[in-house]
C-alpha cells in the first residue's frame, strides 16, 4: 500500500493512485501480485510488464506523441510514477456532451487518428484502445494516449489493425451514432500512418473475423 495517496482506479492488473511526487501531483500505477502464480514467476512477469509499459511510454515521448511523462520506475515495488494530466476522457466527453458541434467532434477525431498513426509508425501497439484511455487536456483539449499497461512493440500489420478494431468496438458498444466520428478517425489515421493502406485493408479482414465469431457465438 502506497501512503498519502488517493485510489482513482482499480483494475485487474493494477491500482492507479493520485499522489505527491517531488512536490507535484503524479499518477502512481502499482501492479499487484497474483496469488495464483508462483511468487518468483509472478515477480518476473510483473517486472517485465512494468518495464514494457515504461519503455512504450518513453518511445512515444521520444517521437513527440502526447503521452504521460514517466518520472520514476520502481521495479522493487512494481510502481511507475508518471505525469498527472488534468482533463476529461473522450468517453466522458462523448457521454456528457453528446450534442457537441460536428466541427468540434471532427477536431477530436482528427487528433485521435493522427496520434494513433504516429504511435503505429514507431511500432507501439497500445493493446487496450478505448475512449476511456484517450484523454483531452483541460488546458488545450489536445488528445493524450494513456494507460499503456498492455502495450508492446510490434511491426506486424495484423497487430496494428487489431488495435484499431478494439477501438472501433469500444465506439460501437459505448457510443451509439458515432460512426461518422470513427470514419473521421480512420481518415486522419490514413493520412498519418506510413502503412495505412495495408493496415486499413487488414482491418477489413479483422472485422470479418469478428462478425463470424459473433454469428457463431
Automatic annotation (TrEMBL):
Belongs to the protein kinase superfamily. BUD32 family. It is an enzyme of class 2 (transferase). It is found in: Nucleus. GO terms for molecular function: ATP binding; hydrolase activity; protein serine/threonine kinase activity. It holds the Pfam family Pkinase. It comes from Dissophora globulifera. Keywords: ATP-binding, Hydrolase, Kinase, Nucleotide-binding, Nucleus, Phosphoprotein, Serine/threonine-protein kinase, Transferase, tRNA processing. This is non-specific serine/threonine protein kinase. The gene is TP53RK. Residues 2-217 form the Protein kinase domain.
Amino acid at each position: 500500500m502506497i501512503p498519502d495517496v488517493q485510489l482513482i482506479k482499480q483494475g485487474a492488473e493494477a491500482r492507479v493512485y493520485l499522489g505527491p511526487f517531488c512536490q507535484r501531483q503524479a499518477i502512481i500505477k502499482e501492479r499487484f501480485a497474483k496469488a495464483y502464480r508462483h511468487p518468483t514467476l509472478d515477480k518476473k512477469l510483473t517486472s517485465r510488464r512494468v518495464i514494457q509499459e515504461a519503455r512504450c511510454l518513453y518511445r512515444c515521448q521520444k517521437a513527440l506523441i502526447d503521452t504521460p511523462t514517466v518520472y520514476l520506475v520502481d521495479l522493487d515495488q512494481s510502481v511507475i510514477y508518471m505525469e498527472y494530466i488534468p482533463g476529461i476522457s473522450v468517453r466522458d466527453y462523448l457521454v456528457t456532451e453528446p450534442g457537441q458541434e460536428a466541427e468540434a467532434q471532427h477536431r477530436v477525431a482528427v487528433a485521435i487518428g493522427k496520434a494513433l498513426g504516429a504511435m503505429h509508425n514507431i511500432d507501439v501497439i497500445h493493446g487496450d484502445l478505448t475512449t476511456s484511455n484517450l484523454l483531452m487536456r483541460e488546458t488545450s483539449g489536445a488528445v493524450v494516449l494513456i494507460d499503456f499497461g498492455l502495450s508492446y512493440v510490434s511491426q506486424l500489420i495484423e497487430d496494428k489493425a487489431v488495435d484499431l478494431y478494439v477501438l472501433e468496438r469500444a465506439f460501437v458498444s459505448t457510443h451509439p451514432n458515432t460512426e461518422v466520428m470513427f470514419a473521421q478517425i480512420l481518415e486522419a489515421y490514413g493520412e498519418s500512418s506510413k502503412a495505412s493502406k495495408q493496415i486499413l485493408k487488414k482491418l477489413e479482414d479483422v472485422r470479418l473475423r469478428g462478425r463470424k465469431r459473433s454469428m457463431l457465438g
